[in-house]
Specification:
Conserved hypothetical protein from pyrococcus furiosus pfu- 392566-001, ParB domain, single chain, 5-stranded mixed β-sheet, Arc Repressor Mutant, subunit A, 332 residues, 5 strands, alpha/beta
Length: 332
């Protein structure tokens, strides 16, 4: 096993291997490399490439990660000062072992499964910082908005969380194709198993058309119900964040236009309701701040109590040492 350590080094100190270069030469016209560059531009290098010292010790030669380093070089040359230095794994490896290491690094990879992506996206949406973002804004912040992934892809991935666990496992094992899985996830949970075999065997276009027709039949059946039998709350759906923003902007514009006191009162009430729906009304913001401040105080109190406890134990230990006694270790 080769010795490694992570360092942050100047991008200009990293050179291509003068003998043959890497397993794959850097190609900034490759669509996948273009996608990788956008991701690195947004998030930085999350997986440090591997380099080794040159024989004269004046620079580093690339062992693994030619594409990542190539993207970082391009970004630096385009004025990205954040890429003046990058994190790397410095490996103590003989030059003759480099080709084998390059093959091993590229040959052995653990693939992330579709449902694993779905669960991770669901965790991201639950985070406070993403609560008020649109799908497009979230994707842009993650560096995947410009890599051929649309909001439809994002929503399809999330929809996989609606699959029954047994079916989700079949998707991860590629027993059910991902395209058919997207449509299978649109079905009510009780019907997914009825359609499972068709999802395994049917052509994607045929399966999607069949499911789409079935969903249309379900909607038509619901529309055929009498008005008395339909609870409006059962039909309620949240609007897109962009719709809320547009409505709020329109209300503010209307408020500025009118001088009628009654209309102003009505519009202010509508504005408050819009802010409340977005959880950005003053009362909600104050409650969130109070909750955050309380949590901060609790952490500070806990840290203070811990410090006092440590100080007390240190004083007791000093007193025992002064008496020639051996302090008892905690947990001994």
């Amino acid at each position: 096993m080769f010795q490694t350590n992570v360092q942050t080094i100047p991008i200009l100190d990293i050179k291509d291997d003068p003998r043959e270069g890497g397993l794959r030469k850097y190609d900034n016209t490759n669509p996948e490399v273009v996608d990788l560059k956008e991701n690195i531009k947004a998030l930085g290098i999350l997986n440090p490439p591997s380099v080794r010292w040159s024989n004269d010790g004046k620079c580093f030669f690339i062992v693994d990660g030619h594409q990542r380093i190539g993207c970082a070089r391009d970004l630096f040359n385009e004025g990205g000062r954040n890429f003046e230095k990058i994190p790397v794994n410095v490996i103590d490896i003989p030059a003759d072992d480099v080709p084998l290491a390059q093959i091993a690094a590229n040959l052995i990879k653990v693939e992330t499964k579709p449902v694993q992506y779905a669960k991770q996206l669901q965790r991201i949406l639950a985070m406070e910082r993403y609560r008020f973002m649109s799908r497009e804004e979230i994707m842009a912040s993650m560096g995947i908005a410009k890599v051929g992934k649309s909001a439809t892809w994002f929503n399809n991935q999330l929809k996989l969380n609606d699959l029954a666990p047994e079916i989700a496992q079949m998707v991860d094992e590629n027993i059910i194709g991902i395209s058919n899985a997207y449509y299978l996830a649109k079905l009510p949970p009780g019907e997914q198993f009825q359609w499972m075999e068709a999802a395994k065997t049917m052509d994607t276009n045929d399966f999607q058309a069949k499911v789409a027709n079935h969903l249309q039949e379900i909607r038509a059946t619901k529309k055929g119900q009498s008005e008395e039998s339909i609870n409006p709350l059962d039909q309620a759906r949240g609007r897109k964040l962009g719709d809320h923003k547009e409505k709020l902007s329109g209300l503010n514009a209307d408020l500025n236009k009118t001088t009628d006191a009654v209309k102003q009162s009505f519009i202010k009430g509508a504005i408050w309701h819009a802010l409340w729906s977005l959880q950005i009304d003053q009362e909600t913001l104050d409650a969130k701040k109070a909750e955050k401040d309380a949590a901060k105080r609790a952490r500070e109190d806990a840290a203070s109590a811990q410090k006092e406890q440590i100080k007390k134990l240190q004083e007791e230990a000093k007193a025992m040492l002064a008496k020639g006694q051996t302090p008892q270790l905690i947990g001994a």
